[in-house]
Amino acid sequence: MEDLMAPRMLERKFWKNLQERTKRVVLALYEALRSRDVDTVHQILASDLEWWFHGPPSHQYMMRLLTGSEKVGKSSSTGTFEFNPEFIRSFGSIVIAEGCDSSRSISWVHAWTVTDGIITQVREYFNTSLTVTRLGNQESESSDCSSPSSSSSSSSRR
């Protein structure tokens, strides 16, 4: 019986390790964005990153940050947007991150694809009617954001 269980245990261990590695890559990206560490961001993101954006065009904060159109310390009426994930869960090579900016009443979700330690795809959702189901046994998490769905949504691909 032990011989039959060994492959399942190895498979579970493989998937758990993969999920931990992919989650660490995404956490490293958020930390590099927060500290404005351009070199690390370039090392983590594929040069041909596939990017999907779903939400109001005015909420393309990540694109402005990564393309350099939002400068460090830039003074504007809206200020600099900070991506601080409140929830991160990995499913193999896919990592889901949720966050919000309660001062702007903006909720966001990122779905990252990590291949060989490099982020190759991101799907970014802002204030849309997207619903994310949290899997697993978790305690109820509180959040400062409870954002209404936005009827305005557009899709653009980089």
TrEMBL record:
Q: What Gene3D superfamilies does UniProt report for this protein, alphabetically?
A: 3.10.450.50
Q: Which SUPFAM superfamilies match?
A: NTF2-like
One Pfam family, short name please?
A: WI12
Annotated region (Disordered) at 137-158
Q: Where is the composition biased (Low complexity)?
A: 143-158
- What name goes with this protein? Wound-induced protein 1
What organism, scientifically named, is this protein from? Hevea brasiliensis
